[in-house]
């Protein structure tokens, strides 16, 4: 019987970008706004950018705020730690929420829940209240998880590293942009006649409003998956409604996620730490003006416009030739070099030298962030959100520990703390060599010789027989087939030479 042409089109909707069997885009067109893939990309990075601006709006104005609220060095250190500690558990929760409800609702809800804390910063009147508003504002950094989950849901394996890298990198630009934005807004308000202790308070309404508007944009224009929103797909049977217990279990029992959480703590965690200390470091050590220190500090975060996306692109390029092993090797090398530049930064005594080394350090440490999330999407298909949340939460834990150990109080000078932080980066990057995928191998070992060491076997192991009988595993089966590119050019050609036939596709 002939199938009507209209039915074919309804089963396989047309997209502006070429797609794979999961309808994930196989191309990443940066300047396109085509729905749903590129629209999700732009909504994702803009909302994350807004949250970053809110979370780090205070550090550029700390010299003014500390005089107004009589903050000590310990108070400032505690507030910096509070600003990143809230996101530790919220990122894990966000990952689970993305798995169960979709990135659109999860991110918009968190943004709206945390925006009042940004508004309330304007009425902080003591060290305790300042610490509390920074703590609750920091929860919004969990939008990073929805950012990466969304990109991994919209883009296919060959370009997912680039999509994740650019989306997160451009979002992280908020950490640098706020170093320029807040002093500028503060100056404009002063020029309009406000006292300086009033001007910094009014300035916080700008990031708060930006954050609020980004949440409404996501709700109005966003879409969870290429084929629709989670709720609609679950009602139509296009996506099975998963169980929290199973999603969470398969995430936390995958050791690869824990290693990535540790290593991410010393690339992204270091980035958060530097965002908190760098303006004050240049202001105090080199006796600079507040605006000048802000411009220099901004260059660290603004490097994300190229550095983190470059990490994602490098990850994809290495995977194309060497497979997953290429992704792991490039991550280890880039992050280790970032640690080396961090050590040098703390030892550099001249202003010009410090700026040059800081920029080199920022390029490598932020590229390592992009390289990390070139690996994350392949750790688990069923528990992608949990793995993303664990890794993202690890970044915040790293920031907390680093600030507690090296930058709280006066135990170490800031320059000594920076050098010791570099040593910590290099040490905590070593466990990457322990990550091993049976179907692709690891840094030092090739893939397993067992016949069942395939992409299908790896991803279908997350589903039990009862779930497979109900067909819940079908999306994982498609994903496994689309991940064959992680074998790399060399491994694929070797497989073809030994079998005389190319690998079969489901």
Automatic annotation (TrEMBL):
UniProt region (Disordered), positions on chain: 487-506
GO terms under biological process: nitrate assimilation
Record flagged with keyword Transmembrane: yes
UniProt cross-references to Gene3D superfamilies, sorted A to Z: MFS general substrate transporter like domains (1.20.1250.20)
Recorded superkingdom: Eukaryota
Localisation: Endomembrane system
Name of the protein this chain belongs to: Uncharacterized protein
Organism listed in the record: Liquidambar formosana
């Amino acid at each position: 019987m002939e199938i009507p042409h209209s039915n074919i089109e309804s089963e396989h909707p047309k997209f502006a970008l070429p797609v794979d069997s999961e309808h994930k885009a196989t191309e990443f067109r940066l300047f396109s706004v085509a729905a749903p893939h590129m629209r999700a990309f732009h909504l994702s990075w803009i909302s994350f950018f807004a949250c970053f601006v809110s979370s780090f709006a205070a550090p550029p104005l700390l010299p003014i705020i500390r005089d107004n609220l009589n903050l000590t060095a310990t108070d400032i250190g505690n507030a910096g730690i509070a600003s990143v500690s809230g996101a530790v558990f919220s990122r894990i929760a966000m990952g689970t929420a993305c798995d169960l409800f979709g990135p659109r609702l999860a991110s918009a809800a968190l943004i709206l829940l945390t925006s009042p804390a940004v508004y309330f910063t304007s009425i902080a009147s003591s060290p305790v209240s300042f610490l509390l508003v920074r703590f609750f504002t920091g929860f919004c950094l969990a939008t990073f998880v929805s950012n990466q989950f969304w990109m991994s849901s919209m883009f296919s394996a060959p370009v997912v590293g680039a999509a994740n890298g650019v989306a997160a990198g451009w979002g992280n630009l908020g950490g640098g942009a706020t170093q320029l934005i807040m002093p500028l807004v503060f100056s404009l308000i002063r020029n309009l006649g406000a006292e300086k202790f009033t001007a910094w308070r009014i300035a916080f309404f700008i990031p708060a409003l930006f954050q609020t508007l980004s949440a409404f944009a996501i709700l109005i224009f966003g879409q969870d998956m290429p084929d629709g929103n989670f709720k609609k797909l679950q009602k139509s049977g296009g996506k099975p409604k998963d169980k929290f217990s199973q999603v969470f279990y398969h995430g936390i029992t995958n050791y690869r996620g824990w290693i990535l959480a540790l290593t991410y703590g010393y690339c992204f965690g270091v980035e958060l730490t530097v965002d908190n200390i760098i303006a004050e470091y240049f202001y105090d050590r080199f006796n600079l003006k507040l605006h000048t220190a802000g411009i220099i500090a901004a260059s660290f975060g603004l490097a994300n416009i190229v550095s983190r996306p470059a990490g994602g692109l490098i990850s994809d390029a290495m995977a194309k030739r060497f497979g997953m092993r290429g992704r792991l090797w490039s991550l280890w090398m880039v992050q280790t070099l970032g640690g080396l530049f961090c050590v040098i930064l703390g030892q550099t005594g001249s202003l010009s030298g410090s700026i040059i080394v800081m920029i080199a350090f920022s390029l490598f440490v932020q590229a390592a962030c992009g390289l990390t999330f070139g690996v994350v999407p392949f750790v688990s298909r069923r528990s992608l959100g949990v793995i993303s949340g664990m890794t993202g939460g690890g970044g915040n834990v790293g920031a907390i520990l680093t600030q507690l150990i090296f930058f709280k109080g006066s135990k170490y000078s800031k320059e000594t703390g920076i050098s010791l932080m570099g040593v910590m980066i290099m040490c905590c990057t070593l466990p990457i060599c322990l990550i091993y995928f049976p179907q692709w191998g690891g840094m030092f070992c090739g893939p397993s010789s067992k016949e069942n060491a395939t992409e299908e076997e790896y991803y279908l192991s997350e589903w039990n027989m009862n779930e497979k009988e109900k067909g819940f595993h079908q999306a994982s089966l498609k994903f496994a087939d689309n991940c064959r590119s992680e074998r790399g050019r060399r491994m694929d050609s070797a497989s073809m030479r030994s079998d005389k036939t190319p690998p079969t596709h489901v």
